[in-house]
Amino acid sequence: MNKLIKTFGRFKESIDIPHLLRLQLDSYDKFLQTDVSPSMRTDVGLEGVFRSVFPIHDFNKTATLEYVSYDIGQPKYDVDECIAKGLTFEAPLRIKVRLAVYDVDEVSGSRTIHDIKEQDIYFGTIPLITSKGTFLINGTERVIVNQLQRSPGIIFEHDSGKTHSSHKILYSSRIIPMRGSWLDFDFDHKDILYVRIDRRRKMPATILLKAMGMSTDDILSYYYRPETFHLEDGKVLRKVEEYNFRKETAYADIVAPDGAIVVAAGKPLTKGMWKRMLKAGVSFYEVRPESLETEFAAQDVVDGTTGEVIARAGDPFAAAVVEKCIAAGITALQAIFTSGAEVSSSMRDTLALDKSEDMESAQIDIYKRLRPSSPPTPEISATFFDNLFRNPDYYDLSPVGRYKLNARLGLELPIDHRTLSNEDIFRSIKKLMHLKDTHGPADDIDHLGNRRVRPVGELVENQYRIGLVRMERAIKERMSLQEVATLMPHDLVNPKPVTAVLKEFFGTSQLSQFMDQTNPLSEVTHKRRLSALGPCGLTRERAGFEVRDVHLSHYGRICPIETPEGPNIGLIVSLTTHSVVNDYGFIETPYRVVRDGYVTDEIQYMEASTETGHIIAQANALIGEDRRFASTHVEAREEGEFAIIPREEVTLMDISPGQIVSISSALIPFLEHDDANRALMGSNMQRQSVPLLAAEKPLIGTGIEGIVARDSGSCLLAEGDGEIMYVDADRVIISYGEGLYPESGGVKFYDLQKFHKSNQNSCFGQKPRVQIGDLVKKGAVLADGPAIRDGELALGKNLLVAFMPWCGYNYEDSILISERMVKEDVYTSIHIEEFDVFARDTKLGPEEVTRDIPNVGEELLRNLDESGIIRIGAHVKPDDILVGKITPKGETQLTPEERLLRAIFGDKARDVKNSSLKVPPGIEGTVIDVKVFNRRSGEKDERTLAIENAELERIDQREGQHITALTEATRRKIWAECKGKSIAKSLMGKRKGEVLLEANQPMREDVLAELPIKKLAGVFAAKEVNEAVKQCIDLYDLQVKFIKDVYESKRGKVTEGDDLPPGVIKMAKVYVAVKRKLNVGDKMAGRHGNK
Predict the structure, then answer these.
(1) How many whole angstroms separate alpha carbon 134 and alpha carbon 302?
(2) The predicted structure's pLDDT at residue 910
(3) DSSP output for 591-604
(4) pLDDT for 551-563, tens place per residue?
(5) How far apart are CA 1051 and CA 67, in angstroms?
(6) Is-same-fold flag (22-144+454-514; 690-798)?
(7) 22-144+454-514, which class in CATH?
(8) Domain coordinates in residue numbering, the chain
(9) Rounded Cα distance, 156 and 701, in Å
């Protein structure tokens, strides 16, 4: 029975907490697109990988292997069977490919289709995600941890003056793709701009620009504004423009067109004077003649008469050049504006250092630097340069990278433009020059706008791509070695490289981790974890303080509390309660929109980069009945700083006070009063709590306990609205109606977990919470899981605690407990140990599982059955035999007595040694289950047959209960159709002459309950009623057949042999439940980190 809960919360949350495992489940669903028809699939995940690698052409372009579609089949074994048999939960993958063979005309080179073959090919298996967000690999549950990684895109940085001895701040930028060459631009202490491709030798950045087709004139005109000088009567006049103000002293009086002196000679020019000059209409003013020597030509200066080039673009106007210009009658000179406060001559200086002349020489220069051992030709260099940044096979920015580039550089290129355009590079250099010249701020690489989450789907996608690229090479080689016209697609495709890469990733990757399954909270937390470690990530040794620190952009996205205490502190973090990850991988947090001080119901999810510029009020700000802030000034934060702000300026408002912490921290009541370090310990130690014999809800909770229990996957939840048809300690049968499971009449059979061993050997079991006849809503808890009570997380116990000294026994971190706590099993827990034994085929003969063990007394064999396997329920201690096994020993020189025994008794007297499975030291408990696995071709012993018979009986019983529940549900449907309707003829009972209901009488419910369903066909007077009843009966027959087929396949799985490793004849697993009471040395803790 549910207890009433008093809620002290003052604020109603605007939205519910999203499903806690949504990131894992949605990401893998998006990767597989299982429920999407092949024609409707988008180019993401598995579909995107196949589309990016296929079509595969042979080297002579005479054949092409094209991808059509893929299909994922049904898994052979369900989750429970995979755990029991130590298998991977996976499904077969088949791909449809088309092999097109062409005839190539030797003269023209044109291709005509010779033959097309299409075929479905088995492409290995692919692991499936369970409903709990885990993967079952070789029988163990594993979690793929989401990786927090630097986002693709562009980043601008500076060295804070630490690189050069002059302490000059040197700016740099980096374009990071998802796949392909990194591009770095760096300024040196002389303001020369260099470029590095893939961190190779640096070269002047203008070489890259010229290789992209820009001339010197183009470069100068793109990066500099022009300014005009006039040469008149030995004077040098400078044109006045809005943008070309520079600090200098007036050389002569600056006079307006009306004759008024705007600036007197000798006065320093200021911005105010410059504005007055523009207002007065001053077009030119006189400057010192020698000042031209510091200016540079914006374009080539050519003598119009002789055609002689007096000065090249970028050359300085030296005195000799000016004299030549005067002699040639050139009065107007175009210079580049480099002397302003926010411009510099760095690009012109870089051009002066660049020796390449045109596009071809620049491309050859780049090729020489990146491929120093290969001789370059113009064609090879051009192809190589195009492949660097423009070929989607070699370079991929990804949609994320394109999105970030567009946002940072103000571009509007489509998201599917995933290679670098010329404009990307031109704009990035321009932005970098502007930052250097204006001493602008660098990007913060630790800001969450520059870090993104790579969820499980993306990580598996990357591995699949690696495997497919390996397979592509093998296919190309096969195409060239053999006669393609005679081959079928399956002769070319070998999926082994792909399955090998997947197996390696799921089995050994740093991000594929053995799931922490101590209790439901530890499961959920592990799946919501973000790691900066792993492939393409950071290492513990290299990570500095800044990347580990709490950042202001973490607010509402990453928990500032929950992180490990050791060397991984700050590198492994958790998502907050309300945060979600968007399609680009950036973490978003929800806010309520505020307009003119009024709080609306509109919810806006914002990533860290789009939050800048907003003023955000706290969730606990008081709101009046008119939905306006009650106070004229509210506490809010702007750019991470907290301030008191007028309510009209506020644009957003937090959703909930708990949105800044993770679920583990949110379980701590009165968290705001805790010290940060102790709160960290409290949130970490809750995950270490072992499920107890009797769970107890906390007297003081935070309201999130039910959400954690619901989303953890440990509870059994109703999949829709329905009625409970049957309940016992092992199973729940529920009727959902027609919406769900139509093939079985909407009746679903749930087996409850009993004494299930978790990854950490804690005991997981489910207890039903419902009774027969209960009506349940979708999402209702049907059965509690471990450490869950009444559908809420219940990790510990409510104890009376005294803070006082007790004769020194509770010194420092010691806790003194009452003896009653041990006697009454308050903190008693059950742990399940699994022991397995293999009988192998050895060189000297097969090992044998038997009770007949040499030199072992009957006392040690008392709990073994005839097959040599321990009976269920036996109490075992260290060194007790669990499974008797003998192994043949090598032949030795026999004594006369031994030879006589061998002659009399034959093989029985041969040399064998005792290799039985025994209970290890420190384990004492009760045997709760035994599983025996036999090779398919092997004989089954008595114990195996007994286990099979017991399982078959259980299946028969379940089938009967399932059909009974379906019959009851069908009977109710028939009653709804025939209620009050008359019958055409009398209905006879089971006994001779017994009449249940006379003809022309309305049908009664008690009569309907006594009659078999099939006897109800055609008994009613009304034709439409008979038709409706017949439809129900026909559907019932189909549904019964489906249920019988399902259970028949289960029987087949029980009686068939098992796939055992090579050389293994038989395998036995024994599960021992160990009852552990509270002991000296055990760790006890409160939720606040008081351990």
Answers:
(1) 74
(2) 61
(3) EEEEETTEEEEEEE
(4) 999 999 999 999 9
(5) 39
(6) no
(7) alpha beta
(8) 22-144+454-514, 153-217+353-448, 225-340, 690-798, 948-1055
(9) 46
